[in-house]
């Protein structure tokens, strides 16, 4: 997995922070919660209500030391539970094989897709509040 995602303090950061506070039911002056099993379950519930499936994209598989390979994948659902280290897990099909991968490792093909902002907000929250 990657490093912390950072954004300069501007309108997009403030808009994202407000979306996340709304998701967690936090008042404007409150702070966002840390990643935990409980907060991941809240996020999972939100994603179940808002994501549209299937989603086409890709993920990178580590194949050896400093080696990796990108695979196309079609995501068909969210796994019903979370893992604090990996976060939300997604289920899909890649090369005719069923796969389960962390949502963090999934890259959506189309930035114009209605799911894009939901996925980006999740990734930024997960990396910055661990």
How does the SSE layout of this entry go?
Layout lengths: L10 H14 L12 H14 L4 E10 L2 E17 L3 E8 L2 E6 L3 E3 L7 H13 L2
Antiparallel strand pairs: 1-2, 1-5, 2-3, 3-4
Sketch the topology as an H/E string, one letter per element. Answer: HHEEEEEH
* Low-pLDDT residue intervals, each spanning 5 or more residues: 1-10
Oligomer: single chain
> How many structural domains can be distinguished in the coordinates?
1
The dominant shape is globular
Q: What's the gyration radius in Å?
A: 15 Å
Ends: how far apart? 13 Å
Major sheet: 5 strands, antiparallel
Count of helix runs: 3
- Can you give the helix content as a percent range? 25-40%
Task: Characterise this structure.
- The chain has 130 residues and is of the alpha+beta class.
- It has one domain (11-128).
- The protein is built from 3 helices and 5 strands.
- A hairpin with a 3-residue loop joins strand 2 (67-83) and strand 3.
Quick structural summary:
It is built from 3 helices and 5 strands, in the order ααβββββα. By secondary structure, the protein is an alpha+beta fold. The chain has a 5-stranded antiparallel sheet.
What attributes does this structure have?
single chain, 130 residues, alpha+beta, five-stranded antiparallel sheet, 3 helices, 5 strands, 34% strand, disordered N terminus
